[in-house]
C-alpha cells in the first residue's frame, strides 16, 4: 500500500488510492481479535464512511490465517464478567452500519467472528486452503454478528445450521458453493485478487453503488435488532451451566 498508512499495533490501516485496507496484524496469535483491535477496526470503518475519497474497504490478514476469532483470554474474561464487552458490540454494529462496499481477502483460517464478519462483506476471496468454522454451540453459546439472520439468508437454512449450530467447518470450495465466498484462488493470489475486485468496485459510480448495495442488503434495522437479540442471548448463555462446563473443559485441555 503506497499512499498513506497508520500502524496501530495489531491492526494496520493503509489507503491505496480509493481503497482502504484494514489488515489484521497479530500473526503470532493467528489474528485472534482483542478489544484494542475491535476498536481500531471500528474507527477505520467510521472514518471510511466519512471520506468521499474512500470507495471500498478491504479486510486482510496474515498468510495462513485471516482470524482465529476472539482472543480466548479476553473472551474468558468477558464470560466471567457476564457478557460481550461494549467495544465488541460497537464493532459488530459498525460492521453492519458500514456504508462502503466491503471486500475480504481470506488467506487461511477463519474462526468464529473471523467467519461471521464475512457475512457483512460484499465480495470475499479465499485461498484454496482456507477453512471456515463457528464453534459457538460447542462452547454453550449462540451465533453473533447477526449471523443467525444473515447466514440462512446467504446460504440457506440447511447449510447455515450445519455451520452455525452443528459447528461443521467449511472448506473454501464448500464456502464458495454455499455462497459465502465469491472466488477461490491460490494462497499467493488472494490479496491481489481481492484488491483487483476492490478497485473494480471503486471505479464504479459511487452513488449508484451505494444505493444498489443498500437495496441488496435490505433493512438495516432488522440486522441491528438481530445483533441486539443475539447479544442478549449470548449474555444469558455465558451464565448457563452448559457454557461453564464447556469453558472448564476447554481450559483443562489447554493446560
Would you spell out the secondary-structure blueprint of this structure?
Elements: E1 4-8, E2 11-16, E3 19-24, H1 35-50, E4 56-60, E5 64-67, H2 72-81, H3 86-97, E6 102-106, E7 108-111, H4 113-116, E8 123-127, E9 131-133, H5 147-155, H6 157-165, E10 170-171, H7 172-178, E11 183-185, H8 190-202, H9 206-217, H10 220-238, H11 241-254
Helix pairs in contact: 1-3, 3-10, 5-6, 5-10
Provide structural commentary.
The structure is a single chain. Helices cover 49% and strands 19% of the residues. The model is unreliable at 1-7 (pLDDT under 50). Helix 5 crosses helix 10 (220-238). The longest helix is centred in the C-terminal third of the chain and has 19 residues, at 220-238. By secondary structure, the protein is an alpha/beta fold. The chain has a single domain (4-187, 206-254), classed as 2-enoyl-CoA Hydratase, Chain A, domain 1 (Alpha-Beta Complex), CATH 3.90.226. Strand 3 (19-24), helix 1 (35-50) and strand 4 form a beta-alpha-beta unit.
Count of the separate structural domains: 1
Question: From the helix content, strand content and strand pairing, which structural class follows?
Answer: alpha/beta
Count of helical regions? 11
Helix content: 40-55%
Note the beta-strand portion. Answer: 15-25%
Q: Shape from CA axes?
A: globular
CATH class categorisation: Alpha Beta
CATH architecture: Alpha-Beta Complex
- Low-confidence stretches are 1-7
CATH topology label: 2-enoyl-CoA Hydratase, Chain A, domain 1
- Strand adjacency order, main sheet: 1-2-3-4-6-8-11
Alpha-carbon Rg, integer = 17 Å
Number of strands: 11
Amino acid at each position: 500500500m503506497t499512499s498513506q498508512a497508520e500502524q496501530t499495533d495489531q491492526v494496520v490501516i493503509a489507503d491505496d488510492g480509493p481503497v482502504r485496507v484494514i489488515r489484521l496484524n497479530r500473526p503470532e496469535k493467528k489474528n485472534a481479535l482483542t478489544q484494542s483491535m475491535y476498536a481500531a477496526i471500528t474507527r477505520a470503518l467510521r472514518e471510511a464512511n466519512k471520506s468521499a475519497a474512500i470507495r471500498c474497504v478491504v479486510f486482510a490478514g496474515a498468510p495462513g490465517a485471516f482470524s482465529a476469532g476472539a482472543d480466548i483470554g479476553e473472551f474468558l474474561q468477558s464470560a466471567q464478567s457476564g457478557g460481550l464487552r461494549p467495544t465488541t458490540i460497537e464493532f459488530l454494529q459498525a460492521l453492519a452500519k458500514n456504508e462502503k462496499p466491503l471486500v475480504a481477502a481470506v488467506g487461511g483460517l477463519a474462526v468464529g467472528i473471523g467467519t461471521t464478519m464475512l457475512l457483512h462483506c460484499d465480495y470475499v476471496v479465499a485461498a484454496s486452503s482456507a477453512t471456515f468454522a463457528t464453534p459457538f454451540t460447542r462452547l454453550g453459546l449462540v451465533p453473533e454478528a447477526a449471523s443467525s439472520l444473515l447466514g440462512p439468508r446467504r446460504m440457506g437454512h440447511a447449510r447455515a445450521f450445519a455451520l452455525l449450530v452443528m459447528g461443521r467447518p467449511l472448506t473454501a470450495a464448500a464456502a464458495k458453493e454455499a455462497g459465502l465466498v465469491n472466488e477461490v484462488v491460490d494462497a499467493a493470489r488472494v490479496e491481489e485478487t481481492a484488491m483487483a475486485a476492490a478497485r473494480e468496485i471503486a471505479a464504479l459510480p459511487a452513488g449508484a453503488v451505494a444505493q444498489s448495495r443498500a437495496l441488496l442488503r435490505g433493512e438495516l434495522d432488522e440486522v441491528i435488532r438481530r445483533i441486539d437479540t443475539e447479544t442478549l442471548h449470548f449474555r444469558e448463555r455465558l451464565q448457563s451451566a452448559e457454557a461453564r462446563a464447556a469453558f472448564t473443559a476447554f481450559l483443562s485441555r489447554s493446560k
